[in-house]
Inverse folding.
């Protein structure tokens, strides 16, 4: 009845495939696209744009909102590992982490090894912040700990250092994701040095005024406000400075990153 | 049989003889942004529902987890006869088995908030759903910005969508016309009626709210624009408003598609592809047929 231009047909085709993505017949195109490595590369661009735009917006070192004591969640949901398995951790709990040590090494000029008592004696920062899980929930807690920037400055990062990697004591059992159970693995996380030196990035030893309990990452947990919960590594034993993430564990810079989640978790 | 043809309504017989007035209704930019927007919104809704399934509870305020009181929850609850889908909104509990909470996917009973056939990807996959969502969020936002800037600069938004005083006064009549499925013809069909204008402006407002509440959920963006947290009453409130606005957009899509079908789907869809719209005639046609959609030719 009318001229259907090629341009029009293309646009209609694009919209039609959009409708086919949702609803009807098992989302044939959507699932196929998701499974294709080419489209995964397209999807990955979004993360690069998010990172670039947020780096630009946050270039002034903007702070995450800090809340009032009355805002603190009466019950802060513990997530991920709730109690690390293994005798070593059990022993550490039994002696109240008296011989727990934090190593700071890798691309630093002066590697550090600090006891919990030494860390508690260092200058600390206390902040009441919101914890946002990638799943969608939020909880507010008060955290006290040593600024990671202070530790790194003491250790002296080498010029080629780009990332701080946090090695943890917990082996996270597979949680359901990606349509199935995840392979268990050692938990770890990594952040860029610009985030490591942010004043609100601390290695917390206390929560809501008391020493961290086991379900929240005793004795040390990373707080990297302005990013999602899975970046906030618990049971931290070692901070390693490195210039690349590819040689560590799954190579994507974190337990969940190795399982498909974004490395930059500002959104 | 032959008598049936002979007594066919006059309008059908005479329609081809009278040249139909065709106007150029939608510019190329409107058509392009319309289809890109349609594609992005469908993907945003599908992937958004998959993300919702990772934590099928909504709250008001800054914080909220399973340990707090949700405003809305979609759960699977074990009953003697098997799992039941229970949707709770405030004090109201509804059994939504088959659709929400418990549904079927290829004959398998799934315990998930939204059914597989509505989500992108179809299986529960927060990581990939987020990749889809945030990629097409860029498409939606940039496309919407182009449309809005162009509409403001060219003043077409004001001309085509902003209701005049006369438009506002015609709301009651327009409501009655819509209820009676009466569509404008002739000169009146060349411009958007007042309910159309309000619906399109409402959609623009909803999409803007979606983008802003979406950004409020980003801990990084919150540090840049903490006023968003105050504007929406907290991150969890923003998440709830995000969901409610998405529901509003779904309602718009349903009404929009129904209206397209009622107003003559071929003419309407063609006009959004080629820009050319055949004006439904209002001279000569029998009164009883005057407001019906023009027959496809």
């Amino acid at each position: 009845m009318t001229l259907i231009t090629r341009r029009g047909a293309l646009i209609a085709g694009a919209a039609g495939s959009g409708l086919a993505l949702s609803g009807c017949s098992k989302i044939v195109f959507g699932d196929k696209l998701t499974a294709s490595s080419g489209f995964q590369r397209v999807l990955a661009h979004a993360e690069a744009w998010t990172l670039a735009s947020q780096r630009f917006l946050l270039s002034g070192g903007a702070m995450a909102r800090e809340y009032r004591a009355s805002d603190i969640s009466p019950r802060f949901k513990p997530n991920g590992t709730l109690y690390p398995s293994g005798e070593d951790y059990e022993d550490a709990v039994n002696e109240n982490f008296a011989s727990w040590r934090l190593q700071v090494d890798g691309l630093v000029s002066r590697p550090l090894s600090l006891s919990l008592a030494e860390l508690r004696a260092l200058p600390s920062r206390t902040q009441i912040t919101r914890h946002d899980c990638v799943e969608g929930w939020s909880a507010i807690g008060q955290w006290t700990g040593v600024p990671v920037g202070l530790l790194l400055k003491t250790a002296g990062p080498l010029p080629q250092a780009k990332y701080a990697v946090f090695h943890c004591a917990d082996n996270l059992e597979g949680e359901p994701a990606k349509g199935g159970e995840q392979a268990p693995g050692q938990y770890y996380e990594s952040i860029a040095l610009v985030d490591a030196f942010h004043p609100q990035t601390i290695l917390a030893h206390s929560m809501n005024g008391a020493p961290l309990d086991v379900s929240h990452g005793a004795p040390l947990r990373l707080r990297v406000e302005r990013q999602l919960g899975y970046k906030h590594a618990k049971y931290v034993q070692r901070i390693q400075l490195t210039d690349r993430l590819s040689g560590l564990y799954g190579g994507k810079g974190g337990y969940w990153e190795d399982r498909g989640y974004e490395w930059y978790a500002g959104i | 049989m032959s008598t049936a043809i002979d007594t066919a309504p006059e309008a059908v017989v005479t329609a081809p003889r009278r040249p139909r007035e065709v106007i150029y209704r939608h510019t190329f930019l409107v058509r392009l942004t319309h289809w890109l927007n349609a594609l992005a919104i469908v993907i945003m809704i599908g992937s958004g529902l998959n993300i919702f399934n990772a934590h099928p509870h909504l709250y008001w305020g800054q914080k909220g987890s399973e340990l707090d009181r949700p405003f809305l929850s979609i759960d699977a609850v074990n009953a003697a006869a098997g799992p039941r889908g229970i949707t709770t909104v405030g004090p109201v509990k509804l059994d939504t088995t088959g659709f929400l909470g418990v549904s079927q996917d290829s004959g398998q009973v799934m315990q998930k908030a939204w059914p597989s056939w509505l989500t992108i990807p179809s299986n529960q996959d927060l990581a990939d759903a987020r990749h889809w969502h945030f990629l097409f969020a860029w498409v939606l936002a940039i496309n919407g910005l182009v449309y809005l800037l162009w509409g403001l600069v060219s003043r077409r938004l004001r001309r085509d969508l902003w209701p005049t005083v006369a438009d506002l006064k015609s709301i009651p009549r327009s409501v009655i016309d819509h209820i009676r499925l009466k569509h404008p013809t002739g000169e009146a069909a060349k411009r958007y009626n007042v309910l159309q204008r309000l619906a399109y402006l409402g959609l623009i407002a909803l999409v803007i709210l979606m983008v802003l509440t979406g950004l409020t959920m980003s801990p990084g963006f919150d540090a840049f624009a903490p006023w968003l947290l105050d504007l929406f009453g907290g991150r969890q409130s923003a998440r709830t408003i995000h969901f409610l606005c998405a529901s509003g957009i779904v309602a718009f899509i349903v009404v929009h598609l129904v209206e397209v079908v009622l107003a003559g789907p071929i003419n309407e869809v063609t006009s959004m592809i080629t820009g050319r719209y055949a004006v439904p005639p209002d001279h000569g046609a029998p009164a009883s047929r005057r407001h019906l959609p023009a027959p496809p030719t």
Q: What stands out?
A: Residues 1-20 of chain A have pLDDT under 50 and may be disordered. Chain A touches chain B through 71 residues (CB under 8 Å).
